[in-house]
Amino acid sequence: MARTISDLAGAHNISLSELKPHLYHYLGSQAVQHLLEVSSGLDSLVLGEPQILGQVTHALQLARGQNTVGHILSRLFQNAIRTGKRARTETLISHNPASVSSLAASLAEKKVSSIDQAQITVVGAGKMAELAVEALRKRGAERILVVNRTLERALSLGQKWDAELATFEQLESAIERADILIASTGAPHTLIDASMVESIMQKRPERPLVMIDIAVPRDIDAMAGNIENISLYDMDGLHVQLEDSLSKRSAEVPQVEEIIAEQKALFDAFLASLDMLPLINDLKKQAEEIRQMELQKTLRRMPNLGSQERKRIEILTQALVKKLIDAPAANLRQVSSDTHAVCYAKATRVLFNMDKNTALPCLEERPQ
Which of 24, 60, 148, 284 is placed for a possible disulfide with 154 were both Cys, Cβ 3.0 to 4.6 Å? Predict the structure, then answer.
């Protein structure tokens, strides 16, 4: 662990003393529990956040590509990915929007008949606007127009999401085209007043307009909500819905915790089964040695057998040994996490004559 932290600090040209206060680490069972909670969305900045599962999957892929993940760690990450998928398919931990941007996108989708056909105008090109565009794209939005004070600031967003660009000089015409307007600028005052909206709606009286204001302070005059065919949502209303959404996610936590417990038990059983592997390998090795010895005896007594007959006898003996050994091996794996696993292991060695110096273990006194 110390070497890993030292390498990380060296890669970023910072001192260990500067880096260490920002790090934490877990060992053993705590590390397993932490990874499962992260993958399932319980241990994240936003409860149920879905992107972390993709990041865990990507981390495993990168590690495999660099040959830095072994059998046990690979199994752990596969278990964590399975846990995250179960949490999101068997519960509603990720079903309700958990951020203002995703909530705005969800509202927009519900307010139009087809999100892929709707014209969406996003006013602003900051982080909130970018998150809103990302959430809209994930929901299938295709026609997006980004309006910003300068085109240079909006250019990266437009290229990333294949969005159309416009400046504030074209704001009124951009709103007139819109089915959905999402406003998210850092302006210190409202940019869209009620009179502008009323003038625009007079040009399109039969076409509704959904306006979602996620700016603080607000970008859209609150009075615009009184205009016919206008549906206006602001941060106050969104926060109420967001709290309700997060409350619904929180209600799913106990069920997610049950999934985590189930998956952790499976991984613990896998770890315990590793302790049985040397015994199982010894059992198979002994059986193979016996098979080979008896097979050679038989073949020496039958010197006239052809190659095909010899091959058939070889296959027959292999099948017999496999059928005899598979059941004990499977049972040993199954009881590997049992509290009496050591007793089962010792008993196996005695019963199969693998260790003549071991006394038969775990014998209880017979009642008189």
Answer: 148
H/E segment holding residue 166: strand 164-167
Determine which of 175-189, 209-223, 322-336 has the lowest per-residue pLDDT on average: 322-336
CB 99 within 8 A of CB 241: no
Using CA atoms, how far apart are residues 21 and 5, in angstroms rounded to an integer?
A: 12
* Structure tokens given for 304: 């006239």
Tokens 């970018």 belong to which residue? 130
Kindly report, residue by residue over 49-90, the tens digit of the pLDDT: 777 888 899 999 999 999 988 888 999 999 999 999 999 999
- What is the Cα–Cα distance from 17 to 38, expressed in whole angstroms? 27
Q: Which fold has domain 2-93?
A: Beta Polymerase; domain 2 (3.30.460)
User: What are φ and ψ of residue 153, in 5° steps?
Assistant: -70, -30
Question: Is the pTM of the predicted complex or chain greater than 0.70?
Answer: no
Residue 138 above 90 pLDDT? no
Residue pointed to by tokens 């416009």 = 166
Phi and psi at residue 231, to the nearest 5°: -115, 115
> Residue ranges per domain, the chain?
2-93, 100-249, 275-351
Which amino acid appears at position 44 of this protein?
S
In the numeric block, which tokens belong to residue 355? Answer: 């260790």
